[in-house]
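Summary for the steering committee. One of the milestones for this cycle was to obtain a three-dimensional model of the protein with nicotinamide-adenine-dinucleotide bound, which we needed before selecting residues for the alanine scan. The sequence and ligand used are listed below.
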Amino acid sequence: MAESFSVGVVGSGYVGLVTGACLAHIGHRVACVDKNEALVDQLREGRMPIYEPGLEDLVSRSVNRGRLSFTTSLPEVVRDSDVVFIAVDTPQGDDGSADLGSVAAVARSIGGALAGAQRKHPLVVVNKSTVPVGSGDYVSMLIREGAAENDEGDVDYRVVSNPEFLREGSAVYDSFFPDRIVLGSEGRDALDTMRELYKPLIEQTFPTEMDPRPRAAVPFVTTDLASAEMIKYAANAFLATKISFINEIANVCELVGADVSSVATGIGLDARIGSRFLNPGIGWGGSCFPKDVSALRSIAREYDYEPTLLDSVVSVNERQRRRVISKLQHDLHTLKGKRVALLGLAFKPNTDDIREAPSLEIARALVTRGARVVGYDPVAGKAAARRLPDLKVVFDPHEALSGAHAAVVVTEWEDIRGLDLKEASSLMEPPKLLVDGRNALDAASARDAGLLYRGFGRE
Ligand SMILES: NC(=O)c1ccc[n+]([C@@H]2O[C@H](COP(=O)([O-])OP(=O)(O)OC[C@H]3O[C@@H](n4cnc5c(N)ncnc54)[C@H](O)[C@@H]3O)[C@@H](O)[C@H]2O)c1
């Protein structure tokens, strides 16, 4: 039986809430903290503030077992915890670097709460937020300063970096079955505590109905603070690079008459390359890739290093968005007075997250050019409507398609992949253009249904 810890998780968004619920499920006592009172009230009432498959059930089970609670009171949680995770937002700042305002506020408060506390063991402060290299030391300094503001210079804590790799849309699954757990610290004792905390995950010994396959141990990578922080940025930058790479290849395929789907299959079978993240289309967006690639470029420039490759990865991505508009203009000629349906608004399927969603950028570009834009999403519609009042949001794909001269597949939700293309075609106005921004539909079936199909990198 693994040891059970008292854990605090500060920030109850996509990462904090899922992490807290997962740690409670594997046997720890977890208090999730958030400064947003409405969000905490909602959680206490059993309502999820975000859409994430499997989360509501996981949360309610742990709450019913008395292992998971929600609060706005950080000091109380710090005093009662062995380990405190920081999982607050680190958005892109005006200059492109990561804005550490939320992390800094939490670190100071932790210092304040630690001041004068009698502890048996040092508090392990775990940074799960994605932060620039050196943030571990920064957090450490702010904890000391927070304590000093309360007349207490000598507080006992260790700082650990534990980058998070979960994917929105499968965050619960990813938390239980991670490819690896990365921990960075300058001290052995904190890493030992973390190994014990994560033992049920590392050894895959927790109860689950999610994955009946025999479960192999999860690699546990320990390193120094700076390397752990860098691993997160390098991972996201690599994935963004892979997508921009296949988009560049797709654009050349269109010119030479090759089919990028076959090319992706052919290169992806090479084990050195791998088949994932080789789907061409409108490019990457979301709450992580754009800000993390931007932060990494910013870090490089701080050291007078020109991140040429990363700069190009971003340029290719920006061009992919413009290619959607060009494809529409090619067949519709003028966009003024045309009705365009955006199928899918979330930045990817199975989430309600619209942060840096390609749909918003495409909708803005279309509205500026005089088009009427109607968007459909099974989950993210309301959030998108709040962000973009010029976008008419409907809650049925057929309503979006009705009277549309063109439709763009922006997010490949299952119901959009499974659209009855004949029915779609019957609802649309000529030229019945379908721009498949994710190469998610079958081109031949779309053409048979009477649609003017345009994919990316293929006929
Ligand atoms: N979303 C993802 O898929 C993902 C994946 C890996 C890593 N990350 C990283 O994890 C971090 C959190 O991301 P997220 O998507 O969960 O963010 P989020 O915006 O969904 O949630 C952050 C939460 O922190 C709360 N918060 C902010 N300041 C606070 C404070 N001082 N005290 C208490 N609560 C506070 C906010 O109210 C909010 O609820 C970011 O650094 C992000 O880059 C995110």
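Key point for the committee: The radius of gyration is 24 Å.
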